[in-house]
Amino acid sequence: MNQPSRLRRVARLGSRFLIVGGLSTLIEIGVFNLLVYGLDWGVVAAKLTASAVALINAYFGNREWTFRHRDRRSRTSELVLFLATNAACTALGAGIVWVGVELAHVMLGREPGAFAVNFVNLVSIGIIVLVRFALYHWVVFRTSPKREAGEAAVSSDIPRP
Q: What does the alpha-carbon distance between residue 156 and residue 65 come to, in Å, rounded to a whole number?
C-alpha cells in the first residue's frame, strides 16, 4: 500500500476516532464536574468514575463505527483488551490529573479553582487520546494478520513510479 493511501486511511480512522472521543470527552467532563462540584467528590475518584462512564460510549462507538471494517476476534477477547487498555489509560489520566492539580496548588499557593482543575483535566485527556488511538489501532481493533499479508501482497503488485 502506498504512503498517501495509508495516510488517508489512518486520517479517516483518526477522524472517526476523534468524533467518538469528542462525545466521550463531553460525557467525561460533564460527569467529572458533576461529581467534583455538584457532589463534592475528590478529583481522582471523580476522574476514575467519569472515565468509566465515558468508556461505555467509547467502546460501542469505536467498535461499531470507527473500526467496524476490521476483522473481529471474539467479542470477549476484544472487550478484555479494550478494558485493559482503558484501565491503563485511565490510571495514567488520573495520575496526570493528580500531579497537575498538586502542581497548580503549589504554584498558586492555594487550592486551584475550577478553571485550573479543568485545564489540567483537558491536558490529561489530550495526552490520553493519543495513547488510546495508538493502542486501539494496533492492539484492540487490529487488522488480522491474514488481511495485512493480503494487503502487502496486493501493494507489492502495484508498479511504483
A: 29
pLDDT digits over 38-93, tens only?
999 999 899 889 988 888 888 889 888 888 777 666 778 888 998 999 889 989 99
Packed helices 114-135 and 43-61: angle between N→C axes, nearest 10 degrees: 40
pTM of the model: 0.64
Distances (CA, A) of 137 to 59, 134, 157: 13, 5, 26
For Cα atoms 108, 110, 111, give the angle at the middle one, nearest 5 degrees. 110
Q: Where are the alpha helices (DSSP H) in 42-113?
A: 43-61, 75-108
Please state, in angstroms and rounded to a whole number, the distance separating the CA atoms of residues 152 and 89.
Answer: 31
Terminal CA-CA length for the chain: 13
Q: Cα-flanking dihedrals φ and ψ of residue 122, to 5°?
A: -65, -40
Neighbours of 116 (CB within 10 A): 17
